[in-house]
Amino acid sequence: MRAIVIHAAKDLRVEAAAPTALLGPTDVEVRIETGGICGSDLHYYQHGGFGVVRIKEPMILGHEVAGRITRLGSAVAHLKVGARVAVSPSRPCRQCRYCQAGQQQHCRDMRFYGSAMRFPHVQGAFREILVTDAGQCHPVAPTLTAAEAAMAEPLAVCLHAGRQAGALLGRRVLVTGSGPIGVLCMLVARRAGAAEIVVTDVADAPLAIARRLGADRTINVATEPQALVPYAADKGHFDTLFEASGTGAALVAAFDVLRPGAVIVQVGLGGTVTLPINTIVAKEFELRGTFRFHEEYALAVDLMGRGLIDVKPLVTATLPMERAVEAFELAGDRSRAMKVHLTFE
Question: Do residues 238 and 260 touch, judged by C-beta distance below 8 A?
Fold first, then answer.
């Protein structure tokens, strides 16, 4: 069984992994078909981790995957061999106070595929064969490709962000950062009834995709630094901000164009940021975080399966696992790719 393993920054290898584990009663064996390269995967590849989270041992990457069931545990009755499934990377403990309160994304003993946050690390899903809990497997509609099914994870992140934002019907929405997460937040806001959506970035290529997928306006703030200024009139124009760039500069720059009482959902991770507290107080902003997802994963699979959210245009390149290093280099180049997928067949 082969897997894509990170050993250190820029040291990514396709190599033999441990044999497939024995199936427990509630386990499922999945032949992985497709996996999407996430921003966290890129951080491990480019920098060996992010923040205080560092690679301390070889780790299989990947947590956005879909495949086909090849074996079932003895107690699994709701799934069938041969079924195509999207695999949620989250395995909460179901016992801690947060799981019991329905906040599984805050589980004290979360096992999330391809994560170095704990040691030993949680091995990821970029492998030919994955044994997982049946509860993490979500059957996908026959109309969905494996690549679309693998997009359930980032879409679930954005559905949770949309839930954190509250009511979006009729709202004027600003999205800063038009990478995969920013564009998916835009699609979620549109589906929730947003009346106007403006998307910003510092690169033209991802903005073109946002425009094609329905943004009312896109702005390259690097080449048009004054384009947002008119939106500052009358104390601000936008009701909701999805900050998906993870940069403090983008967050603070948006304050002028947000109306009093606006909701700010910080989606991107950017480390320590200095904020003008006087502005937050005077304009009565609501600054909300958003972290992972839980029940939104099943919702993501359902929405895509019914054709209510189309993620196909985000997948801009697909390479076989043997070309993993090339795929990761491509995924890190925003001028050439939005979302890069790997195939494991």
Answer: no
3-class DSSP assignment, residue 66: strand
pLDDT in tens, 152-192: 999 999 999 999 999 999 999 999 999 999 999 999 999 99
For the domain that residue 238 is a member of, what is the CATH number? Answer: 3.40.50.720
Whether the per-residue pLDDT at 202 is higher than 90: the answer is yes
Residues 6+ apart with CB under 8 A from 251: 176, 243, 264, 266, 270, 273, 275
- For residue 238, give both structure tokens: 């936008």
pLDDT for 21 beyond 80: no
| Structural domain count, the chain | 2
d(CA 60, CA 58): 7
Give pLDDT tens digits for 227-248.
999 999 999 999 999 999 999 9
Report DSSP state, residue 257. G
pLDDT above 80 for 20: no
The mean predicted confidence, pLDDT, of the chain is 96
Q: Report H helices in the chain.
A: 39-47, 97-100, 146-150, 152-165, 180-191, 204-212, 248-254, 277-282, 296-305, 324-331
Task: Measure the CA–CA gap between 79 and 135, rounded to whole angstroms.
Answer: 10
Number of residues that this document lists for the chain: 345
Q: Are residues 140 and 257 in the same domain?
A: no
- Identify the pLDDT of residue 185: 98
| Distance between CA atoms of residues 235 and 250, nearest Å | 18
Same domain, yes or no: 209 and 97: no
Q: Write the CB contacts of 127 (distance below 8 Å, at least 6 apart in sequence).
A: 1, 2, 3, 4, 17, 32, 60, 62, 344
Is the domain of 268 the same as that of 323? no
Cis peptide before 120 (omega within 30 of 0): yes
- pLDDT tens readout for residues 211-231: 999 999 999 999 999 999 999
Longest dimension (CA), the chain: 64
**Domain membership of residue 53 as a residue range:** 2-151+311-343
